[in-house]
Amino acid sequence: MGEHEVKILGTTDQNGFCNPTLNCNILFGHLLTSAIPKETKLFTSNSFDVISDDAFMGLPHLEYLFIENNSIKSISRNTFRGLKSLIHLDLRGNTFNCDCKLKWLVEWLGSTNATVEDIYCESPPEYKKRKINSLSPKEFDCIITEFAVYESLPYQSLSVDTFSYMNDEHVVIAQPFTGKCIFLEWDHVEGSFRNYDNITGTSTVVCKPIIIETQLYVIVAQLFGGSHIYKRDIFANKFIKIQDIEILKIRKPNDIETFRIAEDWYFVVADSSKAGFTTVYKWNGNGFYSHQSLHAWYRDTDVEYLEIAGKPHLILSSSSQRPVIYQWNKGTTEFVKRLDIQDMEDVYAVKHFRVKEDVYICLTRFIGDSKEKKWGGSAFLDLQRMPSRGSMVFQPLQINSYQYAILGSDYSFTQVYYWDTEKAKFVKFQELNIQAPRSFTHVSIDKRNFLFASSFKGTTLIYKHVIVDLSA
Hints:
This is Leucine-rich glioma-inactivated protein 1. Keywords: Cytoplasm, Glycoprotein, Leucine-rich repeat, Repeat, Secreted, Signal, Synapse. The chain is mostly beta strands. It has 2 helices and 37 strands. It folds into 2 domains: about 40-140, Leucine-rich repeat, LRR (right-handed beta-alpha superhelix), CATH 3.80.10; about 145-175 and about 265-470, YVTN repeat-like/Quinoprotein amine dehydrogenase (Methylamine Dehydrogenase, Chain H). The chain has helices spanning about 25-35, 105-110; strands at about 5-10, 40-45, 50, 65, 75, 90, 95, 115, 120-125, 145-155, 160-165, 170-175, 180-185, 190-200, 205-210, 215-220, 230-235, 240-245, 255-260, 265-270, 280-285, 290-295, 300-310, 310-320, 325-330, 335-340, 350-355, 360-365, 370-375, 380-385, 395-400, 400-405, 415-420, 425-430, 440-445, 450-455, 460-470. It has a 5-stranded parallel sheet with strand order 1-2-4-6-8, with no helix packed on it. The protein has a 4-stranded antiparallel sheet with strand order 10-37-36-35, with no helix packed on it. A 4-stranded antiparallel sheet has the order 11-12-13-14, with no helix packed on it. A hairpin with a 6-residue loop joins strand 20 and strand 21.
């Protein structure tokens, strides 16, 4: 060895622990306090496979570090903390696993002033023999998400909707068996959702909020006893019924959609009875009144409002024919039938989402496969098929920059899909255990994101959207 080289052998046993016959701390300290020159090269030739945090703490003057031909697979994030004078590092001959736990090393290699000999990945297979020095942090997709159960509400439910009112986020849940619309608000102190009011009725299937000029209205659809519109009286601090919906047209409501075209507010009720009419209602300043009847006697199960090429559209799903697309006619201020969605019989519901400028729809089928389609300019084209026996909800949801689609099932686990930007399609992401789910809603409060999952046969579940950095 040269006059400035010190070789340390046998300082650790075969498991990487300090050899009991040597005091490792004293040995390293001796290197610093003895008459060894400042430019010291530290050699190790042991068989340990992990280097822990602060392994070289107490060596601020160490300049040359050689850790060659060991079995090192990973190095902790703070391994080199305290090496303030490091000039040269050699990690050759180790079997590095280049996963997210090594992302920090890639970042460190890009920022350190020390010279680092070329080192290579041994695993995973896609990185085998890749030079670690040449990797970019962008190559490590270390941020993952998941939905974790946060709270369980002890009742069955059908529809779940969220709305902003009085500078806060609220949730309204339809309880079919008690006939209630249950309103929840976030308790900022307790960090949980609490019940603050109810609307009591019979066989409630949908509680749909709509806010017009700061006034909150709730459309309550019921299977029996008619459907009604309620207004939130801020002075009395309660809901007051202000209007009944035509019982001759709305016999068996199944879904409600609210929307605004130009300066006018509307809602549309999908009627699933043999003798009912799916009907559009318009706000006239004092109440909602029938504006247009659509699709008589077709047993519509779902209605979806969306814009295609900047123009308002409705998609009606029916148990008796293919989904029908209506387009808004600006001249007559009514919807006119445009086309059917081909090759899709017995679709229970259609929900849409957007990726940049592209429009996609998720079509739910109880028997057969559900589908995802993409608007191709004149029709929706097949993109993806999902097995979906027993499904009554296929709901796309966007949480921050993450696009999901959740496919519920009455017979198996609910499947959560994640939008893969590179593949331009959904990939399987997570399974959730929910009994007979009927709707999913995203709620964002206090920089937290929650997923509400209704259950027709079990408890209503609240999941928290969790972001995990695997490189931490």
